[in-house]
Write a structure and sequence with these properties.
Mean pLDDT: 78
Number of strands: 21
Strand order of the largest sheet: 14-15-16-17-18-19-20-21
Helix content: under 10%
Low-confidence stretches: 4-17, 131-161
Oligomer: single chain
């Protein structure tokens, strides 16, 4: 009995260690020709970064939680990229491509940091030719309209609701962020929504830090933009209310759950 208990305990410890500690949607900068993404992360010990399309997640295998600093691409990586390549740029430890991108499998890069404390790592991925998302038509697996043949993607919710606009906003305001673990006061807000539907939102807090969210536009509902977003420890649907000049008036998130990732966010300018 004791041997079974220790076996189960060891399996549970292994699974808990291999956890997703951050995720990010790429900022698409545009540009034709061959594809390229630059990813920058912080790692303490060992982590793996998986990139699939315009989404990436990082699993911490050991050490403190690994996080993203940057994920930028000139276009979305296709499902089956031609001549896929990986190149480490900087970082004191080892970066290794452990799985090529192909089919529904994303590329996986393992980072092994040999010293104590977090270290920044940067790497690039490349592929030949443009993204296969520029073929037009609705992509049911990804829940969006990939393109119109000219490289413009329109995120959707499966009902044809798309997005082809921009919001760039910096404003004063106040609100709060409540989770099952703590509560923070929110102040000045920065919102960036690109024409391809990528969303980046951040707030100043009363703890002299910033709270950041990244995600994608799901749909428009009159003067509200609905986005699926991720923070460092939570996920939910964000409602961004804007006026007719695309100035942000309010932001809310409420997932209403009872699990440890429950979140209630309210902010107004």
């Amino acid at each position: 009995m004791k041997s079974k208990f220790f076996l189960f305990a060891a399996m549970a410890a292994t699974l808990s260690a291999q956890r997703v500690t951050d995720s990010r949607t790429a900022s698409i900068r545009g540009g034709g020709g061959d594809g390229k993404c630059t990813i920058e992360v912080e790692v303490d010990d060992v982590a793996e970064v998986e990139i699939n399309g315009d989404r990436a997640q990082i699993r911490t295998l050991s050490g403190n939680p690994a996080t993203f600093r940057r994920f930028e691409c000139n276009q979305v990586m296709p499902n089956n990229p031609n001549d896929f390549r990986f190149q480490g740029v900087d970082g004191r430890g080892r970066q290794t491509l452990v799985r090529n991108a192909g089919g529904r499998n994303g590329a996986v890069i393992r980072i092994e940091d040999p010293k104590s404390g977090k270290e920044g790592y940067t790497f690039d991925i490349f592929w030949r030719g443009g993204s296969d998302y520029n073929q037009g038509g609705y992509d049911g697996d990804r829940g969006r309209f990939p393109g119109n043949g000219n490289g413009n993607r329109y995120p959707g919710n499966g009902n044809g609701n798309g997005w082809n606009n921009e919001v760039n906003y910096n404003g004063r305001g106040d609100g709060y962020l409540r989770t099952n673990r703590n509560e923070q006061k929110l102040y000045n807000c920065t919102v960036s929504i690109g024409r391809r539907g990528d969303v980046d939102v951040s707030f100043e807090t009363n703890r002299n830090s910033r709270v950041n969210f990244n995600g994608r536009v799901l749909r428009m509902d009159r003067d509200r933009i609905i986005a699926d977003v991720n923070g460092s420890n939570y996920r939910g649907e964000m409602e961004i209310e804007v006026d007719n000049r695309n100035r942000v008036r309010s932001i809310t998130i409420s997932n209403g759950g009872r699990d440890r990732d429950r979140i209630d966010l309210r902010w107004r300018n």
